[in-house]
Amino acid sequence: MSDEQGSEQRGSGSHMRGEGPESTSRSTIRRGVVTRTSRFSAEVVATMISLASAAFGVVAALAWNTAVTKAFDRWLGTQSAGAIGIFFVYAVIVTLIGVIVIVFLGRLAARIKAQPLEFKYPGIPRS
Asked: Is residue 58 part of a domain?
């Protein structure tokens, strides 16, 4: 901003309202900080969504692993028949909860326009 424009703003009474050149530079700085903060916040939320999705996937996989292991134990004759059904019920319930939460988190990510994280192998290093 030139000196003439700055003096015109001050002369028009805008300095009294806090809208002078100092205020304009502060406003620009604030906008930059807010933009970087919101971008950083979206990245943090996207990372948390990825981690939560992976965690629910692991829990569901472990539940199914336990159920299938118990089924094989029964098939091989090393376990009684009574307790297997509850493991499959548990696995189904955990899977449904995981799917519902992951869908909800995906919608949240779309709402905040978070970019998905991509983990790429850097490639073969050249020697």
From this structure: yes
Q: Is residue 39 part of a domain?
A: no
pTM of the model: 0.56
**What is the mean pLDDT of each successive set of 10 residues along the chain, which is 127 residues long?**
46 49 63 60 79 92 93 78 83 94 86 70 69
DSSP letters spanning the chain = --HHHHHHHHHTTTTTTT-SHHHHHHHHHHHHHHHHHHHHHHHHHHHHHHHHHHHHHHHHHHHHHHHHHHHHHHHTTSS-STTHHHHHHHHHHHHHHHHHHHHHHHHHHHHTTPPPP------PPP-
Number of domains in the chain: 1
Per-residue pLDDT, 33: 55
